[in-house]
């Protein structure tokens, strides 16, 4: 939620420049999901980053979110996701807000997707 203009803000070799979701038209549409997402985070009493991690933790014991960070403050924030409890209603709202039908653009470009056999979406 902190990246507003990928063309201006991402470094030349940033991998996200190759991801269709970061193309201008797709990114603009996906930013439209952010206000509702932030509202849900506020309702849950956590930051948007913590919400993303807590949401993943609701998906089953076989899911282990791995996150990167550049600062100890972000590490502490992300670790706080383990203390966030999401009720079924919030999880359902998140599932309805952000999913394969509502997010614009595929996760990977065509060449990269051919190399990945663990994430195949209809």
Question: In words, what does this structure look like?
Answer:
With 122 residues, the protein is mostly helical. The protein has a single domain (6-111), classed as NADP-dependent oxidoreductase domain (TIM Barrel, Alpha-Beta Barrel). It has helices at residues 6-9, 24-31, 34-44, 48-57, 72-79, 88-97, 110-114. Helix 3 (34-44) packs antiparallel against helix 6. The chain starts with 5 loop residues before the first helix and ends in an 8-residue tail after the last helix. The mean pLDDT is 92.
- CATH homologous superfamily label: NADP-dependent oxidoreductase domain
CATH architecture classification: Alpha-Beta Barrel
What does the average pLDDT come to? 92
Specify the CATH class. Alpha Beta
Whole-angstrom Rg: 15 Å
Helix content: 40-55%
Shape: globular
Strand content: under 5%
Number of helices: 7
Number of strands: 0
Termini separation comes to 26 Å
Helix-strand category: mainly alpha
Largest sheet: none
CATH topology: TIM Barrel
Low-pLDDT stretches? none
- Return the string of H and E elements: HHHHHHH
The tally of structural domains comes to 1
Quick structural gist:
With 122 residues, this protein is mainly alpha-helical. It has helices spanning 6-9, 24-31, 34-44, 48-57, 72-79, 88-97, 110-114. It is 46% helix and 0% strand.
Helices and strands, with pairings:
Layout: H1 6-9, H2 24-31, H3 34-44, H4 48-57, H5 72-79, H6 88-97, H7 110-114
Helix pairs in contact: 3-6
């Amino acid at each position: 939620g902190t990246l507003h203009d990928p063309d201006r803000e991402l470094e030349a070799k940033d991998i996200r420049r190759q991801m269709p979701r970061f193309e201008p038209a797709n990114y603009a549409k996906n930013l439209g999901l952010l206000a509702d997402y932030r509202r849900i985070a506020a309702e849950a009493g956590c930051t948007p980053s913590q919400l993303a991690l807590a949401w993943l933790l609701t998906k089953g014991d076989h899911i282990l979110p791995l996150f990167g960070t550049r600062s100890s403050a972000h590490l502490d924030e992300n670790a706080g996701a383990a203390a966030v409890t999401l009720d079924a209603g919030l999880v359902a709202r998140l599932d309805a807000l952000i999913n394969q039908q509502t997010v614009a653009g595929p996760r990977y470009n065509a060449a990269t997707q051919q190399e990945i056999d663990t994430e195949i979406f209809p």
